[in-house]
């Protein structure tokens, strides 16, 4: 589909409405980059994920996603050998690790619908639980993200 046809259908406006509900800057970017597709397998996977998340939110556990901090630049710097991170980067990485751990734990809540958890398993397996890194950052940064005197 060409850009003119998408504009006539107000597709960018639809993406903006959906992007308003994203819980991270990266999510907003991914939503706004979406384009219509005829890939049936992709459409079915996405529809299943949407249905699964909606059932989690409506469940007795009242699941809700945890905030994902804008840590992309910090993660990119980690890939560079001998690169240094700013204090703020460590704060973002700590928040990302915490969010990942808490999301992983919450998605394993037995009160959540089993079918929905099964559909989301490919996402769940990519989440990280790294208590030692979280603890190491906690020893250096206080709750306000400042370097501790004892660090």
Mean pLDDT across residues: 91
Q: CA-to-CA gap between the ends? A: 56 Å
Strand fraction? under 5%
> Rg from C-alpha positions?
19 Å
Q: What is the tally of beta strands?
A: 0
Sheet with most strands: none
Q: Count of DSSP helices? A: 9
Would you list the SSEs in sequence order as H and E?
HHHHHHHHH
Structure class: mainly alpha
State the shape.
Answer: globular
Low-confidence stretches: none
Helix content estimate: 55-70%
Short description:
The protein is mainly alpha-helical. The chain has helices at residues 3-8, 11-19, 25-32, 40-58, 72-78, 87-107, 114-119, 121-124, 131-140.
Describe this entry's structure for a reader.
It is a single chain. The protein has 151 residues and is mainly α. The chain has 9 helices and no strands. It has helices at 3-8, 11-19, 25-32, 40-58, 72-78, 87-107, 114-119, 121-124, 131-140. Helix 2 (11-19) packs antiparallel against helix 3 (25-32) and helix 6 (87-107) packs antiparallel against helix 9. The longest helix has 21 residues, at 87-107. The radius of gyration is 19 Å and the shape is globular.
Tell me the layout of helices and strands.
Layout: H1 3-8, H2 11-19, H3 25-32, H4 40-58, H5 72-78, H6 87-107, H7 114-119, H8 121-124, H9 131-140
């Amino acid at each position: 589909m060409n850009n003119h046809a998408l504009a006539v259908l107000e597709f960018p406006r639809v993406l903006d409405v959906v992007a308003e509900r994203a819980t991270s800057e990266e999510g907003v970017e991914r939503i706004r980059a979406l384009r219509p597709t005829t890939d049936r397998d992709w459409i079915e996977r996405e529809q299943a994920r949407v249905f699964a998340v909606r059932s989690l939110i409506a469940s007795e556990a009242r699941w809700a996603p945890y905030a994902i901090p804008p840590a992309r630049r910090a993660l990119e710097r980690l890939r560079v050998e001998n690169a240094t991170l700013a204090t703020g980067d460590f704060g973002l990485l700590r928040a990302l690790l915490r969010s990942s751990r808490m999301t992983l734990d919450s998605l394993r809540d037995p009160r959540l619908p089993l079918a929905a958890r099964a559909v989301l398993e490919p996402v769940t397996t990519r989440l990280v639980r790294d208590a030692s890194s979280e603890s190491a950052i906690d020893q250096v940064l206080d709750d306000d993200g400042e370097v501790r005197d004892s660090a």
